[in-house]
C-alpha cells in the first residue's frame, strides 16, 4: 500500500503532468519572451533568463541558440535563423515564434519561452512567369482596364512583403491601376490602338517591395493588339490596268493578275474576286477569273486576224465591305503573216559578227538598223526596251545604234539590248517569217544573234 496500486500510481502521474502543464502555461503566458531579427551572425545576444529565474540555467535545445549556464544569457549559433524556412506556413503573418525549453533554478524547474523571429527584407519579389501576355482588341475604348493575373510574390511580411507596381517603356499607351488589398492590378488603355499601325507592344512590369532597402523584380509584359474588321480591300498600284496579248494565244494562257490588299488579318483580310455582271458577253466567253488568286486566263485558243479591245471590270470583295473595283483593258493584236526583217549595217570594227569596242570610249556609233517588209508595216518603228547605255535614233527611215556613255568592262562585261517593233503605239516582237536580232555588247566588242520574231 505504501507504493500504491498501479491505478493510483497512474493517477498520481497524470496529476503531476497536469500540474506541470499548468505551471508551464503560467510561465509561457507571462512576460518572458524574446525577439531577434532573422539571419543574425553567430554570438549575437538574444536575451537573458536571469531577470525572471535564478541560476543555474540549461537550454535543452541548442540548434539555433546556446546559453551561458551561469548568467542565463543566450546567443545565436553558427546556424542562422531563416524566418521563411522556420515558419514556412506563417510567412504571411507578422510573427514567427519558436518555443525553447530550459531548466532553471536549483530545483530544476522546466520552463518554456518563446523567441520571435523578426522578418528582414531578405527576399526579393518574383514573378512566376518572366513573360506576361495579354491580348487587346484594336477597337477598345480609351480608359478600358484589363486584369493582370500574373502578380509578383514576396515571401517577406509587413512592409518588406508589400508590393508596388509600375510600368516602364509603355510610351504612354498604357498605364497601371492597382485596386483593393489583394491587390488587383489593372492595365489601362490610354490611347487609341490601331493594329495596322502597331500590332504589339512590349514593356516592363516592375514590382518593388516597401522595405527599407527596396528589392524589385521585372517581368516582360507583351500586349498583342488583335484585329477587328476596320479596313476594306483596295486595288494595289501593281494591279495592271491594261494588257496586250497576241491574236494566236493559247487556251489557259495567263493574261493578267489583279491584286487587291486588305491591311486586316485572318478572315478579316480575306478577299475574293469577281467579274462585274456588266462585262460583255464576248469578254465572259474569252476570259475566266480565279476568285482567290485574281488570275485572268484565256478560256479558249485565239485565232484573231483583227485587232480587238475588251474591258474587264473586276470587283475585290471583303467581309462586311463594299467591293473595290478596277478596270483591265485587254488588247488583242492580229496575227501577222507578213515577213519582216531588220537589216544591220555595222559601223564600228567587227570580227565574226562581233564589234570590237574598247572600254571607256565616249559615246560611239555602232550600227545602222533598217526595218524591211511589205506595205503592211508602214508606220512601224524600232525602239529599245529597258534601261541600257545605248540609244536608237531615227535617221531618214533608218536607225542609228550608239552607246550613250562610256562602257566599263569591270562593271559589266555584257549588255543585252532588246529591240522591238512598234506599230500604231502597239509594241510587237514581230511575226511571220521575219527575224529578230538581239545585241550583246561588251567592252571588248559587239555581237548579235538571230531568232524568229514572235508577236508580243
TrEMBL record:
<dbReference type="InterPro" id="IPR020894">
    <property type="entry name" value="Cadherin_CS"/>
</dbReference>
<keyword id="KW-0106">Calcium</keyword>
<keyword id="KW-0325">Glycoprotein</keyword>
<dbReference type="InterPro" id="IPR015919">
    <property type="entry name" value="Cadherin-like_sf"/>
</dbReference>
<keyword id="KW-0677">Repeat</keyword>
<keyword id="KW-0732">Signal</keyword>
<dbReference type="GO" id="GO:0005886">
    <property type="term" value="C:plasma membrane"/>
</dbReference>
<keyword id="KW-1133">Transmembrane helix</keyword>
<feature type="domain" description="Cadherin">
    <location>
        <begin position="237"/>
        <end position="365"/>
    </location>
</feature>
<dbReference type="GO" id="GO:0005509">
    <property type="term" value="F:calcium ion binding"/>
</dbReference>
<dbReference type="Pfam" id="PF00028">
    <property type="entry name" value="Cadherin"/>
</dbReference>
<dbReference type="GO" id="GO:0007156">
    <property type="term" value="P:homophilic cell adhesion via plasma membrane adhesion molecules"/>
</dbReference>
<keyword id="KW-0130">Cell adhesion</keyword>
<protein>
    <submittedName>
        <fullName>Protocadherin 20</fullName>
    </submittedName>
</protein>
<dbReference type="InterPro" id="IPR013164">
    <property type="entry name" value="Cadherin_N"/>
</dbReference>
<keyword id="KW-0472">Membrane</keyword>
<dbReference type="Pfam" id="PF08266">
    <property type="entry name" value="Cadherin_2"/>
</dbReference>
<feature type="domain" description="Cadherin">
    <location>
        <begin position="57"/>
        <end position="127"/>
    </location>
</feature>
<dbReference type="InterPro" id="IPR002126">
    <property type="entry name" value="Cadherin-like_dom"/>
</dbReference>
<feature type="domain" description="Cadherin">
    <location>
        <begin position="128"/>
        <end position="235"/>
    </location>
</feature>
<keyword id="KW-0812">Transmembrane</keyword>
<feature type="signal peptide">
    <location>
        <begin position="1"/>
        <end position="29"/>
    </location>
</feature>
<dbReference type="GO" id="GO:0009653">
    <property type="term" value="P:anatomical structure morphogenesis"/>
</dbReference>
<keyword id="KW-1003">Cell membrane</keyword>
<dbReference type="InterPro" id="IPR050174">
    <property type="entry name" value="Protocadherin/Cadherin-CA"/>
</dbReference>
Amino acid at each position: 500500500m505504501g507504493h500504491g496500486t498501479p491505478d493510483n500510481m497512474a493517477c498520481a502521474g497524470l496529476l503531476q503532468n497536469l500540474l506541470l502543464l499548468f505551471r508551464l502555461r503560467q510561465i509561457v503566458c507571462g512576460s518572458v519572451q524574446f525577439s531577434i531579427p532573422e539571419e543574425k551572425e553567430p554570438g549575437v545576444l538574444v536575451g537573458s533568463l536571469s531577470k525572471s529565474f535564478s541560476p543555474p540555467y540549461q537550454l535543452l535545445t541548442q540548434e539555433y541558440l546556446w546559453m551561458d549556464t551561469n548568467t542565463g544569457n543566450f546567443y545565436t549559433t553558427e546556424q542562422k535563423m531563416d524566418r521563411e524556412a522556420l515558419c514556412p506556413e506563417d510567412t504571411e503573418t507578422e510573427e514567427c515564434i519558436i518555443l525553447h525549453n530550459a531548466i532553471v533554478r536549483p530545483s530544476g524547474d522546466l520552463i518554456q519561452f518563446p523567441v520571435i523571429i523578426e522578418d528582414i527584407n531578405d527576399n526579393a519579389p518574383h514573378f512566376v512567369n518572366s513573360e506576361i501576355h495579354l491580348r487587346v482588341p484594336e477597337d477598345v475604348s480609351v480608359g478600358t482596364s484589363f486584369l493582370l493575373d500574373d502578380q509578383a510574390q514576396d515571401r517577406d511580411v509587413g512592409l518588406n512583403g508589400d508590393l508596388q507596381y509600375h510600368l516602364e517603356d509603355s510610351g504612354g499607351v498604357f498605364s497601371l491601376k492597382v485596386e483593393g488589398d489583394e491587390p488587383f492590378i489593372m492595365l489601362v488603355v490610354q490611347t487609341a490602338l490601331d493594329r495596322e499601325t502597331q500590332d504589339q507592344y512590349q514593356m516592363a512590369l516592375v514590382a518593388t517591395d516597401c522595405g527599407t532597402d527596396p528589392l524589385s523584380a521585372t517581368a516582360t509584359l507583351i500586349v498583342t493588339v488583335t484585329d477587328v474588321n476596320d479596313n476594306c480591300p483596295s486595288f494595289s498600284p501593281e494591279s495592271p490596268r491594261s494588257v496586250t496579248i497576241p491574236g494566236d494565244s493559247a487556251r489557259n494562257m495567263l493574261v493578267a493578275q489583279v491584286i487587291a490588299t486588305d491591311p486586316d488579318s485572318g478572315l478579316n483580310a480575306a478577299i475574293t474576286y469577281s467579274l462585274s455582271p456588266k462585262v460583255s458577253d464576248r469578254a465572259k466567253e474569252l476570259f475566266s477569273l480565279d476568285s482567290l488568286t485574281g488570275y485572268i486566263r484565256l478560256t479558249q485558243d485565239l485565232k484573231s486576224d483583227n485587232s480587238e479591245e475588251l474591258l474587264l471590270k473586276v470587283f475585290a470583295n471583303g467581309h462586311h465591305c463594299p467591293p473595290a473595283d478596277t478596270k483591265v483593258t485587254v488588247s488583242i493584236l492580229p496575227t501577222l503573216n507578213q515577213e519582216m526583217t531588220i537589216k544591220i549595217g555595222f559601223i564600228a570594227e567587227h570580227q565574226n559578227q562581233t564589234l570590237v569596242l574598247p572600254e571607256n570610249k565616249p559615246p560611239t556609233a555602232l550600227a545602222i538598223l533598217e526595218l524591211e517588209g511589205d506595205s503592211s508595216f508602214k508606220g512601224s518603228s524600232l525602239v529599245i526596251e529597258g534601261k541600257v547605255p545605248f540609244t536608237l535614233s531615227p535617221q531618214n527611215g533608218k536607225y542609228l545604234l550608239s552607246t550613250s556613255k562610256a562602257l566599263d568592262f569591270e562593271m559589266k562585261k555584257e549588255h543585252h539590248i532588246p529591240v522591238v517593233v512598234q506599230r500604231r503605239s502597239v509594241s510587237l516582237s514581230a511575226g511571220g517569217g521575219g527575224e529578230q536580232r538581239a545585241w550583246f555588247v561588251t567592252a571588248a566588242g559587239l555581237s548579235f544573234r538571230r531568232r524568229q520574231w514572235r508577236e508580243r
